[in-house]
Specification:
Helix 2 runs antiparallel to helix 3 and helix 3 crosses helix 4. The chain contains 5 helices and no strands. With 120 residues, it is mainly α.
């Protein structure tokens, strides 16, 4: 999704989150992100698992960062940040929105995330 050359980088990123939101809707706005759930549960007790989850998290941030770097005129309005910093803000915010979605079993936290970053 983040490399679909038929879409602009902005559209790629937006579509990635929209597709994930659709998936969460299909499963009743529960479960969320396995990586985030595991990181909360095992990061302090299993070093090998923490390292693997951290590696996967870094890969996601790197993919988002690469997508942001390809954007023209900083369509996300985050020009004051380096692309890697913007990617961290976006992925951290997304994880927070997912946690709130699970707590409320509601799409609203995801919609607020989209509205903030994509004027959804």
């Amino acid at each position: 999704m983040l490399a679909d050359e038929s879409l602009t980088p902005y559209q790629q990123l937006k579509m990635f989150f929209e597709n994930t939101m659709s998936h969460f809707g299909d499963i009743g706005y529960c479960q969320g992100c396995v990586m985030a759930s595991l990181s909360q549960e095992v990061a302090d007790v299993n070093e090998n698992m923490r390292c693997k989850i951290s590696e996967l998290s870094t890969q996601m941030v790197d993919q988002v960062s690469a997508c942001i770097e390809r954007m023209e005129d900083n369509e996300l309005n985050l020009a004051h940040l380096r692309s890697c910093e913007a990617a961290q803000i976006i992925t951290n915010s997304w994880q927070g929105a997912i946690m709130k979605m699970k707590l409320e079993k509601s799409r609203e936290p995801l919609d607020i995330f989209m509205k903030f970053f994509f004027a959804y």
